[in-house]
Task: structure prediction
Amino acid sequence: MDGDPVIPLSLARIAQVTGGQLAHGDPEAIVSGEVVIDSRRAAPGGLFAAVAGERSDGHDFAAAAVAAGAVAVLATRPVPVPSVLVADVPAALAALARSVVDALPRARIAGITGSSGKTSTKDLAAQLVERLGPVIAPAGSFNNEFGHPLTVLRADASTRYLVLELSARGLGHIAYLCRVAPPRYGVVLNVGHAHAGEFGGLDQVARAKGELPEALPADGVAILNADDPRVLAMADRTAARVVTFSCGPASDALVRAADIRLDDLGRPGFTLLTPEGSAPVTLRLHGAHNVPNALAAAALARELGLDLDGIADGLRAATARSRWRMEVHQRGDGVTVINDAYNANPESVRAALDALAHLTQGGAGHGGRAFAVLGHMAELGDTTRASHEDAGEYAARLGGPGLAGLIAVGEEAAPLLDGARRVPAWTGEALAVPDGATALEELANRLKPSDVVLVKASRAAHLEGVAAALLGEAGQ
Ligand SMILES: Nc1ncnc2c1ncn2[C@@H]1O[C@H](COP(=O)(O)OP(=O)(O)OP(=O)(O)O)[C@@H](O)[C@H]1O
Ligand SMILES: [Mg+2]
Result:
């Protein structure tokens, strides 16, 4: 994404669109490079938006950004360099993004939301839609009031499609993002427990995710997961045409999967069923949960005009573009490591444990033992303790040879072990460790060739370092 041009905008125009005041700058100076909030990424021709974060204040880096080539700084207080002073930086970014969208009436905008799988689906969909024309899609999870407008601002006159990830931590968030870049296509993947604590329960999560179908116009398309009743019910909340997808071959959904199976490394294969016919697909991504993600991406690409061959070829070729989501690596000694350390919530922990079971049951780790290194799941509110206990119980009930070891990292993850102990038949080892380094020491004493280790936790736990160390990589 580096260096991608935004539509050229003069500082005078930026001040006009944002309702800001130009200071120390030439009104005719043109911003033609990327808009960034990280001053280290400021580049010639770009615009640096100064944001006050928890640890540092972007205003302190205004001069450095301009020295690195930024044309000006979007700021909320005076800085000694060319700048546009605004009352609120996210609102200014939103206004700028909206002006870019309005200048690109030919660009078709798709939004993807759900509790789990937004980034995976967005990355799959972008790789399909790229077969139709130039796409702007966020890097990683750029899905909030900063990342969303910054992504939209990367569009230019050549852009034909925007494939955007929309996240919510409360009611109104998705509606807001939909006003910044009004989507005509909206995909809802699932309603789960991610951030459920902040919402106050699953029905509230459904209300929030449903703001995407609600925002779609009558000539738009709502792409809904027929396997999730809360998502399917959103059909009543949209003026758009409804298209459904389902992993059940017998469902009456438009896009379906039949004969789902997993290969040795847990990569799903299935028959893609569409109104235009069927096609065999094997994904390069790991885990059965990527089947609904692939169906959602297929349904979106189909609506945008990609034919069945293009969809099936695209799915077969698509790679993981965002890191630490179900990465499966085999070490020289035969130990398999599943690095799913990007994030964790109750649904995604179960999905990852299922993949772990598959790998030890007949997959690459056949004959080996399963170990799960799990950190805590954040933002679950009142259900935090019960959710950890349930996840631990699920782990202890794992199929196949069962879980040989459950290592809970950090105090907040300890209730996982209480849940596992609810399963009397489970004979695996339960260990509570304070940190990743201790988890690594404990594993080093236990791992043998063919064993499989899953590493997963919420973002804040940073367990990707454990996976990297297991693989002998330098920490990241
Ligand atoms: N459809 C799905 N159902 C359940 N779990 C899933 C699904 N898709 C992905 N996951 C799990 O969720 C993790 C995060 O996936 P991804 O980053 O695609 O989700 P996201 O919705 O973008 O998350 P975030 O809210 O953090 O941006 C993956 O590592 C995987 O374990
Ligand atoms: Mg994401």
Q: What stands out?
A: The mean pLDDT is 93.
